[in-house]
User: What shape does this take?
Amino acid sequence: MGTFIQLQAADGVHIPAYVAQPATPAKAAVVVIQEIFGVNLHIREVADAYAQEGYLAIAPAMFHRAQANVELGYAEADMGAGMALKSAVEALPAPGALQDIQAAIDYAHQACGGKVGIVGYCWGGLLTWRAACMLNGLSAAAPYYGGGVTTEAEMARQPKVPVMAHFAEEDKWISMDSVKAFQAAHPTSQVFTYAAHHGFNCNHRAAWQAEAAALAKQRSLGFFKTHLA
Assistant: This one.
């Protein structure tokens, strides 16, 4: 359904991004932020699904500053490669790859003329949280099991827009105690937990939990319908 375009970040660097267009003129847009596996088939399918709901969806290649054309699977070797690339991007001088998300937000505004939301998974959930707190032009943010979101440093940030956060109750990287602390620190944000493991939204992973994924998607769509109208 979608095609790749080139975005230009504030520092002049060109970043590929997958764009999925709805069948009818877009009512708003959703920026989709990848896991540590690149803009792979799953992330493109997520973007396509948001386009089917009437949104322009755009997924910038968040690893591009470290390595071009990254598309990983979910084997142990892929996990290691993705973690290394994440570390490389996280180590970039500020604003690092956040300016690539800003470029995607700006493109989405220009392309559809409506409001822009953001959704992200795993590392993309962390970047979604940071975008909600630090970037401009967003109207809503929905991070999924964002690794690091519940750390003290990240919880100290204040979102500029409404947030709906999704967490997995059996996540071995994000404790439920830290999720409760996040909820206490941000009482105006909606926080939902699911009887599932980290990565439950991805139907290409063993951790996929269909019921949890469907419920989180339903909630996210309702959230975006409210805030992107």
Q: What stands out?
A: The first strand starts at residue 3 and ends at 8. The two ends are 24 Å apart (CA to CA).
